[in-house]
Amino acid sequence: MVVGFALIAETLIKMNDESGGQAAIGMGMGMGLMQWRLLRNYVASSSKFFWSTVIGFSLAFILRDIVASLINSTMVDSKITVEITIPFAVLFGAFLSGWLQYRFVFKGIMDKAGFWILYSVIGWLLATLITMSTTFINIKFGEHFLKVLVVFFALSCLSLGGPILGLITGQFIVPRIKSIRET
């Protein structure tokens, strides 16, 4: 239902061609699903963790689309691009989903649960910046070898985002899961 609402809202408010709402829903669902799989055996409210991720990122990217559309429609010489807005949307989405996860899942069952928000924000932001670094490659291709290097670099950056996010957020979750299991 939430995903359906987000897709309908995204379609209704989409005024620019560089929308990120669908990608955000996919990001939130993908990472939320993987983290839920880790938590489901240890935390009773692990499904809330999944939905917190989906809702947090969906709202952040829908807000990004609204703001970018308003700015682009009111300022004649302005064009808000994806490269500019995605890191801010991810930052807000990570904060919002991290807070929701803290509030509805971790608070009261883990020590130092508030730090989850910080780990989540840092992990998501680093993963996004590493993944997006490929958008800043603007090289004139003259030699075939250079093309191969750029493609290899781009694929490496795209492949590193998820593991970086998992490594950083795992540094928080795994020790606390072990302490829950021991009690």
What's this, in brief?
The protein has helices at residues 2-13, 21-39, 46-74, 82-106, 115-132, 144-182.
Regions with little confidence, pLDDT below 50 for 5+ residues:
1-17
- Overall shape: it is flat
Helix content: over 70%
H/I helix tally: 6
Q: What does this protein look like?
A:
By secondary structure, this protein is an all-alpha fold. Helix content is 78%, strand content 0%. It has six helices and no strands. The protein has helices at 2-13, 21-39, 46-74, 82-106, 115-132, 144-182. Helix 2 packs antiparallel against helix 3 (46-74). The radius of gyration is 18 Å and the shape is flat. Mean pLDDT is 75; it is low at 1-17.
Q: Layout of SSEs?
A:
Blueprint: H1 2-13, H2 21-39, H3 46-74, H4 82-106, H5 115-132, H6 144-182
List key phrases describing it.
183 residues, single chain, mainly alpha, 6 helices
